[in-house]
Each structure stands twice: as structure tokens, then as C-alpha cells.
TrEMBL record:
This is Peptidyl-prolyl cis-trans isomerase. GO terms for molecular function: peptidyl-prolyl cis-trans isomerase activity. Keywords: Isomerase, Rotamase. Signal peptide: none annotated. Belongs to the FKBP-type PPIase family. The keyword Isomerase applies. InterPro entries: PPIase_dom_sf, PPIase_FKBP_dom. It catalyses: [protein]-peptidylproline (omega=180) = [protein]-peptidylproline (omega=0).
Amino acid sequence: MSSKPEIEFQDGPAPVELVIKDLEVGSGKEAQPGDNVTVHYVGVEYDTGEQFDASWDRGEAITFPLRGLIQGWQDGIPGMKVGGRRQLTIPAKLAYGESGGHQLSGKTLVFVIDLLDVLN
């Protein structure tokens, strides 16, 4: 997992529930709800496949508490092990809401997340 992942364009209608797909299963420490995690990630819009953010492009991973993230990450990262790569397809209701002031409100999002570390 030393390189930025490519996210394939998603066919069909956007899912209405969180979809978790392990691309690579890690063998390290397992993330638990409320842990602090260090990750690399890429995020694209489901409908267009357009990238809106990627820690890879900034050249450094980020560390943050799971409880401070969108619900789709809070639900989708626990159970993942360090060294793993997971794809989360997150409906708007678990991302930035169905509507509102955020540029990603109302959008289904796809993230590929590499779990680099779990800190308690």
C-alpha cells in the first residue's frame, strides 16, 4: 500500500446504506469505535467519479479521532486492521447530509482508506 489507489467508476444506482469492501486485509492492530487513527485516503463522488480530496496529494497521512468524522467513517473504519485498505461507499445521509451548506451535501461518496496506525 505504498501508492495512491485508483477508484473505479461505480455502475448502477447509488446505495442507500453504507457499503464496506475490504480491498486488502491488514494484520495489525484493529480499529475500535472512538480510536484515533492515522490514514491515507482518496475520496470521489459516486455519480461523477470526480476526486474531491486525497491525503496522498498532500504527501502526508492524517491522524484524527473517529468520533470527529462523518458517520460513514465512524461506522466503516472500526474492525479494520492496520495495513488494510478498505473502500467505503457512503450515502449522503451518512456523509454530509441530504442537504445543507457543505459542497458535498446530497452526494454519495466513495473513499478508499489505508489504515496506517491505531492510537488509543
